[in-house]
Amino acid sequence: MNNKIKIGIIGCSTIAKASTIPAILKSTNANLEFIGSTSERKAKEYSLEFGVKKFGSYEDVLNDPSIDVVYISTPIGTHEEWVLKAANARKHILCEKSSTTSYSSAKKMIDVCTKNNVRIMEGFMFRFHPSHKKVREIIKKGDLGKLFTFYGMYGFPPIEKDNIRYDKSLGGGILNDAGCYPICASRILFESEPIGIFCRLSLDKEFQVDTKASIMMNFTQERSSQSVLGYDLFYQSVYSLWGNKGFLNLSRAYNVPPDMPVSLNIKTNDFEKKLSIEPVDHFELMIDSFVRELRVPDTSSFSFEKDLLNQARVMEAARISHQEKRYVEINEIQ
């Protein structure tokens, strides 16, 4: 594999344009080689804006032998199709979150990637932000004592109803769109998988997609995670941790602009302090982490494929919990 990994884009999404493509362009480890879209006009528009010579269809990207990695940024409901096609084309895959719409779909995706000896990572860029590493250091140091609960909020101002988030057939809805974040964050910070979950979703009557969510998860050692999410709300992207010795909250937890510092506030019986984490581009950190793992396997702090499956399993349990109006144990999901 050459020094710089060549990346092709599958899906000219808003997040690709605003964050992922600029991060690839900034990376010293990757080159943006090809723009793929279902619209030739949009592919050309993106190629001109970002100075990329090659543009065309999704198939054109996959058929280009120079491409090492594809970034899949299509609607969630189409991820499985393009992950399977990319894997069969022997391309490594960075897939936007949520990875897919069911646990069975996630297992199929991993199986095909494994069969074709390609890697796949779910694109949770937030986990690469140094603020979360600092939070884990504080937990390990014992400042918070025995952890009791994680509490997360992630919500957005009104979104136009023609947005794909309101299209059920494309995997729209707040759970797939944003609920995945606090689920992932609590798994990371507790360094374990939940035992069970209760999820309640509020549906838009016209479009029948979930627009608000309340999620509760139980973990071992009497720990729990609670998250609330929604559209048509004052913007929030935060979480807090509460232990028997202290309390911590993060001012910006998930989608952090590259020029924004993050504040970390800690309160204990002995002290109060505020830490400031300098601005970074966590999309760029994600790209570089993925590339490093491709060059030198097993250098990442987590298994991409195992984490994708574990996340998908919890998401599936959340969907079943809402559908069946009950608490679902994670080991029910096989």
Automatic annotation (TrEMBL):
Keyword Transmembrane recorded: no
Keywords from the UniProt entry: Oxidoreductase
InterPro entries xref list: Gfo/Idh/MocA-like_OxRdtase_N, Gfo/Idh/MocA_domain, GFO_IDH_MocA-like_dom, NAD(P)-bd_dom_sf
Keyword flag Transmembrane: no
GO molecular function, one term: nucleotide binding
Pfam family, any one: GFO_IDH_MocA
Protein name (record): Dehydrogenase
Protein species of origin: Nitrosopumilus ureiphilus
